[in-house]
Every structure is written in C-alpha cells, then in structure tokens.
C-alpha cells in the first residue's frame, strides 16, 4: 500500500517518509525472508506481495536457494548481473590499496557526482566495491558475488528472497549506502527493536566508517530523538515505529 504524500511531512516532523525523501529497505526476519526495496515508500506485508501484480522477483539460487521454491536455479539472474559483478571485482585490487582516509574520501566524491546528476546505476560498481572493502576492514566480512547481486536486486526495487543466516543484514548495507549518496536518506526496516538496534550497531559500523550518519529509532525515544535519527543518512527502524510515526505526523495538526 503506497502512503499518500502529506503536507505535514516536512523536516521538522517526526518521520520524513515522503517518496521525495527516503529509500526504504524492509527486512522481514522469518524462516524465509523477503527483501523489498521500493523506489517510493510502501508499507507491505510479505504475505501480500503477490497483490502488487507484476512486481518483479529475482531468484538467486546457490547460496540463496531460489525463490518461492520454483524451478529457477538462479542462473538467469546471475547471468543478468554478471557483467556488473565483473566490474566490481575488477575494482577490488585498486580499492584494497586505498588507505582508510582515501576510502572515506570516496564517499564525498560519490556524493558530489550524484549532486551533479550522475545516476546511481552509474555509481553502483564503484560504490559496491568501496562498501565491500569497508565491510572487509570493519567487520572482517567480504560480501560474496551472490550477495552483490542481492544488493543490486534490492537497488532495482525488486525482491530477493534469502533463508535465515544467508547474509541479508550484510546485503542490505550495499543498496543502503548507494542510495544514501543522494542525500535523501534511507530507511532499513525490520520487525523488532532488538534487530534494529543490533543491525545498526553491527553492520551500521560500515557506512559510519565511510563517513555517513547512521540513526536508530527505538520504542521509548522522545520526539526530538526521533527527528534527529530520521534525518540520518541511513536509519534503522521497525515497521511498527515507522507506521505509528507516520500516523503521528498526519494526526497532529496543531500544538496541544
């Protein structure tokens, strides 16, 4: 269900959720977990994905084990993204030679290029190479090629289904970092406060290392704390807090 634009969704409100502001990556942590990354803000339950009609779904196979238990092994998806994966891998040796400060400087360069009108699709190979190297340095985890593909699928606004333990938390920082370069911000949405806090504190170290501000929304936060965190480059939040903050913005028309 697409959320309508409201004139109340201004920078001073609790949650700037207009599609003009945010890129949203819900993470539903269940036995078989689906990512959805819409180009406009949408609230949607995994069980209702089919109601969106022609929404694309990508089977990654291999590590991800396919999608919806269909017959597609994921080979067609791997072939579709093979050229971009090769570009990212080709940059790995060069990026690995950069110092920490030079790696952080890349973020400023990407942001400037995005402001000058360069598309995120054009920036994707370099940005993914940088975030992969940062993940290796900060977390000791180097995203596999199939995880790069998962990140590209999410960036396109499609669905990549992954089983528990296959690295969806790590995959999410790839499109989150890329889309945060525009300055409009990104929401990473999960199902409870513990997971939001864990992911923010763990993989959130990677975009922080690269110079981005990473925020967190928790149940007992004040309105001022919420505003500050929603204005981060990347904000980790639960689906319930996001929905209720949207309602608070649209129900509060004057000061009490």
Secondary structure layout plus pairing:
Layout: E1 23-26, E2 32-34, E3 57-58, H1 75-96, H2 100-115, H3 120-138, H4 145-155, E4 159-163, H5 168-180, E5 186-190, H6 193-201, H7 205-209, E6 214-216, H8 223-230, E7 234-238, H9 239-251
Helix pairs in contact: 1-3, 1-4, 2-3, 3-5, 4-5
Walk me through the structure:
This protein has 256 residues and is an alpha/beta fold. It contains nine helices and seven strands. The strands form two sheets. The chain has a four-stranded parallel sheet with strand order 1-5-7-6, sandwiched between helices. Strand 6 (214-216), helix 8 (223-230) and strand 7 (234-238) form a beta-alpha-beta unit. Helix 4 (145-155) packs across helix 5. The longest helix has 22 residues, at 75-96. The radius of gyration is 18 Å and the shape is globular. Mean pLDDT is 78; it is low at 1-13, 16-21, 28-57 and 61-69.
Our estimate of the beta-strand percent is 5-15%
Overall geometry: globular
Number of strands: 7
Average of pLDDT: 78
User: Which residues sit in consecutive blocks of at least 5 with pLDDT less than 50?
Assistant: 1-13, 16-21, 28-57, 61-69
**Helical residue percent?**
40-55%
Instruction: Name the helix and strand elements from N-terminus to C-terminus, one letter apiece.
Output: EEEHHHHEHEHHEHEH
Q: How many helical elements?
A: 9
Spatial order of the strands forming the largest sheet: 1-5-7-6
């Amino acid at each position: 269900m697409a959320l309508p634009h409201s004139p109340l969704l201004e920078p001073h409100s609790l949650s700037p959720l207009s599609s003009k502001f945010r890129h949203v990556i819900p993470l539903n942590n269940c036995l078989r977990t689906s990512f959805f990354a819409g180009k406009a803000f949408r609230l949607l339950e995994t069980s209702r994905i089919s109601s969106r009609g022609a929404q694309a779904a990508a089977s990654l196979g291999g590590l991800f084990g396919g999608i919806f238990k269909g017959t597609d092994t994921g080979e067609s998806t791997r072939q579709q993204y093979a050229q971009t994966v090769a570009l990212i891998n080709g940059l790995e040796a060069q990026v690995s030679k950069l110092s920490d400060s030079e790696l952080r400087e890349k973020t400023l360069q990407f942001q400037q290029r995005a402001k000058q009108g360069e598309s995120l699709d054009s920036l994707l190979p370099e940005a993914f190479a940088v975030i992969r190297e940062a993940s290796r340095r900060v977390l000791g985890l180097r995203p596999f090629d199939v995880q790069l593909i998962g990140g590209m699928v999410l960036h396109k606004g499609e669905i990549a289904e992954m089983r528990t333990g296959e690295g969806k938390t790590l995959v999410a920082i790839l499109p989150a970092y890329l889309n945060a370069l525009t300055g409009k911000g990104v929401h990473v949405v999960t199902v409870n406060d513990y997971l939001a806090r864990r992911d923010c504190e763990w993989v959130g170290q990677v975009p922080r290392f690269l110079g981005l501000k990473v925020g967190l929304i928790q149940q007992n936060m004040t309105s001022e704390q919420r505003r500050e965190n929603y204005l981060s480059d990347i904000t980790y939040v639960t689906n319930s807090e996001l929905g209720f903050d949207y309602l608070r913005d649209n129900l509060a028309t004057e000061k009490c």
